[in-house]
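Protein Entry — a single chain follows
Fields — amino acid sequence, structure tokens
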Amino acid sequence: MTAESKNIALRSFFKDVREAIAGTDQDFTEVKLSRAILLLSIPSVLEALMESIFVIVDIYFVSKLGADAVAAVGLTEALVTIIYAIAMGLGTATTSLVSRRIGEKKPEEASRAATQAILTGIIISVLIGVPGAVFAKDILSMMGASEHIINDMSGYTGIMLGSNVVIMLLFIINAIFRSAGDAAVAMKVLWIGNIINIILDPLLIFGIGPFPELGIMGAAIATFIGRGTGVIIQFYLLFFGMKRIRLFIKHLEFDFRIMLKLIRLSFGSIGQNLIGTLSWLGLVRILSIFGSEVVAGYTIAIRIIVFSLLPSWGISNAASTLVGQNLGAKKPDRAERSVWITGWVNMALLGTVGLILFLFPSFFIRLFIENENAVSSGIKGLRIISMGSVAYALGMVLVNSFNGAGDTMTPLKINIIAYWLVEIPLAWVLAISFRMGETGVFASIVIAESLLTVIAYFVFRQGKWKLKMV
């Protein structure tokens, strides 16, 4: 390749980057596949990167309140991940329907599916939020929290669970934008919401300036305000933004036929996420046996792991959208090629990040906490869990591709095997029976996630997902 051709290729690349960030009207069933992946991946990665930054900044400020505060966040986070599981499950079902209808060139049906997903999310969030807010102390007690956390920090848990509607809608509506091909819109909305959250965090936690000092509750209120602002912007764009998906007042009525289809499709995905979430709850419960400092170290390590995983999750969203739209356009071979290309890119990215975390865990853990026992546990967790980074990367792409095709039951079955039949029993045996402590728990995570990827790989190669109708 000559110097001139290299310059042309470089200019073309940066032009695509600018287009991806600004927003594009490309038809992703027709545009060159490598360019389609780039245009969809960049905003999704930037969206996930901001989520990662928020996760890290949030725990950084909370960690200044002590190990118990971090443990309270960790225990609540384990509960809130159930909400994330449901939101992501509904988002996955929405992606399947919306991307398929967009691929079939049926925008009106795509809009109707989007509206029903939003209404379903609101109903579910109310059913979770009311008991979550009322029984926050009892829930923390069942999670094995200390008396100090239960009596003095349950307000954080109550607010996070009670205001879950903003989390639910943020996930679902951004899934609508991404599946329609408007990934840049989802990115910008999340950036605005999380920047507000990050700004409010120290102000409300420590009482800076005219703001009240609310401690750990300030972190929960900042989350509600920031993400709530993002949801308001989402609704404005859906009704007045002139994007690929446009909602009208006529759509705001219950269509139980579509809602049942969404619930049926989301059942497998919600099941996947709930199984994974309940397994994380099980791991936290096992770790709580060893004390708040171990839970605090684990929480820090997991936040850092999440920081590394979310950009890869953003890349895997590109595969999900391309699978759905290309199956809708009757191009299954193109859908499969998009998965393998995205998988290789994701493995290269997350493998590099995982190597850095493995080599320098102490540097990252000590950024957030000073308690030496918590630091020791966090270093151990970060080093062990990061060993499975390449497997996590490919597994995310494969699972998202099944879901994008509407085949949510296959990953559900794989998750049952990996998490319930392997991870939890193995964690208990290694940690308790073999007296490995938290090391056994961390090792079980790597083993289970790697097994999930291997099974998903062989099932994906069979190609039955190409025949799924939604």
